[in-house]
Amino acid sequence: MDTYDVAVVGAGPGGYVCAFRAAQLGLKVALIEKRPTLGGTCLNVGCIPSKALLHSSEQLVFTRDHAADHGIKTGPVTADIAGLMRRKDAVVTKLVGGVAALAKARKVTVITGSASFTSATSLTVTGAAGQTVIGAKNFVIATGSAPVELPFMKFDGKTVVSSDDAIAFASVPTSLVVVGGGAIGLELGSVWSRLGSAVTVVEFLPKIAASYDDDIVRTFTRVLQKQGLRIETGTKVTGLKTDGGKSVLLAEKDGKGLEFPGEKILVAVGRRPFTDGLGLDKAGVVLDEKRRVKVDARLRTSSPGIWAIGDVVAGPMLAHKAEEDGVAVAEWIAGKAGHVNWDLVPAIVYTDPEVASFGIGEDAAKAKGLSVNVGRFNFAANGRAIASDATDGFVKVIADAKTDRILGAQIIGKGAGELISEVVTHMEYGGSAEDLGRTIHAHPTFSEAVKEAGLAVSKSAIHAI
Ligand code: FAD
Ligand code: NAD
To answer: Which of 39, 126, 218, 287 has an alpha carbon within 20 to 30 A of 32's alpha carbon?
Structure first.
């Protein structure tokens, strides 16, 4: 039996970051992954390939629909799907190769195969090379998540598909019905709509991107509709039928039956924690009521020496949250003071414009009875946004009415995902809206809208009435 200080199961952003930090701290580390490549869902089939497709399809829309407005002449512009997919695959290959190179440089032992606990102190890894038994002082469960299936329409990889398939279609479906108006549905729905598919998003709740404030979602919905997406909210999916060889999604809205024919149906209704085949019962690790690995405030499971991080535990299923979990656990294992601020996890939908948030929103603050001041600044009044044809959207900063301390922010606009970081940093250090508004921002930048929103909290924005 090979023995380690730490054996990490799963090499996604949670697992590989944990392994690297543990190695940095001088521990002997094994990183076990059943995929042939490292990087997990995020690098192989999630964050990275979806962003590569979003970027390529954004270039297509600019060249096809807007280049002429800038005095740029082009010939006929068409999408070469094979070329687009090749580029996306090259991006993934480069990144997963980078992670493998880092693992080697940090002397992390990578073991390829499926891990299953045999006790609280050992597991077996079954791979192409047979079985290996691994013992460790600490195990970290970082096995991530898998797409949720609707019971009456199982994934078949052809018509009823998950995001794993929708990042790799060989051709543009003439029509795509997306079930779920969350991050995956809106990002991949945007990609295929830009490439020419007739996309309908069917969402159960009264609004898409439901965790955002109503005013953000109203703007978001209007912009997506202008881009050609059909959005049906408050609509309950009830089944699937085949009509003349074509698939038709059946749904109900306000008691009336609706039918949505689609060449493909992308089901994007969330992801479930993945612990299949892990033998958790043999290790004494228990799950919570949502089948996530149950952990305490230090990410310790019910079994001493076994930790769990990322999508497989409670909290937002986001790569950067998994990474921070991983760093903290490695530090706790090494006897250091690990720390994660779970109240300050930014979330972004990478559509165009992007939508970003962190902390508490205006609607949630008011629902909780908190006394807040909200500063808002529109990109329509920002010089850089006007020069860049990117005037859709606005920045909102939410601050405590008494202390002016920043409690959260929401942004819809070009590059919102980059802009939100600044406000997160201010909040991390206990900053006020006035601090944000008095910080010098270079001109002309989109970030001036963030500064102005900070000033707007005390009704002192300079470029708005
Ligand atoms: P994962 O990345 O899921 O990694 C877990 C790994 O464990 C997998 O590689 C799996 O093969 C392996 N594994 C499982 N069981 C075993 C076993 N028994 N033995 C060995 N190995 C095992 N998040 C963002 O923050 N930003 C984004 O833009 C974003 N975009 C996304 C787009 C899509 C289409 C999807 C699907 C997800 C996206 N996410 C995004 C979510 C993000 O991918 C996850 O939050 C993140 O990957 C979670 O990291 P993790 O390390 O917990 O798990
Ligand atoms: P999600 O939870 O973000 O959205 C799912 C949506 O589907 C919700 O709006 C929900 O109300 C709706 N829904 C649920 N059941 C439904 C039904 N039966 N009919 C119609 N609508 C239904 O989940 P997702 O978009 O599948 O993404 C999964 C996870 O991956 C999320 O945790 C997300 O944070 C993460 N992710 C993040 C990013 C990003 O950060 N940009 C991108 C993709 C995925």
So the answer is: 287
pTM of the predicted model as reported, rounded to 2 decimal places = 0.98
Per cent of the chain over pLDDT 90 is 98
Tens-place pLDDT, residues 45-104: 999 999 999 999 999 999 999 999 999 999 999 999 999 999 999 999 999 999 999 999
Q: Which residues line ligand 2 (CB under 6 A)?
A: 179-185, 187, 202-205, 210, 237, 268-271, 316-318, 347-350
- Domain 2-146+272-343: CATH superfamily, name plus number: FAD/NAD(P)-binding domain (3.50.50.60)
Calculate the CA dihedral of residues 359, 364, 367, 373 and round it to 10 degrees: 60
Rounded mean pLDDT of 397-426? Answer: 98
Alpha helices in 106-229 (DSSP H): 163-166, 183-194, 214-226
Which stretch of DSSP H or E encloses residue 220? helix 214-226
Specify the DSSP class assigned to residue 130: E
Q: How would you label 48-75 residue by residue, b for 16+ Cβ within 10 Å and e otherwise?
A: bbbbbbbbbbbebbbeeeeeeeeeeeee
Rounded to the nearest 10 degrees, how much is the dihedral formed by the CA atoms of 382, 387, 391, 395?
-30
Domain boundaries, given as residue ranges, for the chain: 2-146+272-343, 160-269, 353-456
Backbone φ, ψ for residue 241 (5° rounding): -130, 165
Polymer length in residues for the chain: 465
Tokens of 79: 């999408």
Out of 55, 66, 320, 443, pick the active-site residue. 443
**Interval between CA 250 and ligand 2 midpoint (Å):** 20
Q: Decide if 2-146+272-343 and 160-269 have a common fold.
A: yes
CA distance 167 to 178: 13
The CATH code for residues 160-269 is 3.50.50.60
Cβ(43)–Cβ(92) below 8 Å? yes
Residue-wise pLDDT tens digits, 113-150: 999 999 999 999 999 989 999 999 999 999 999 999 99
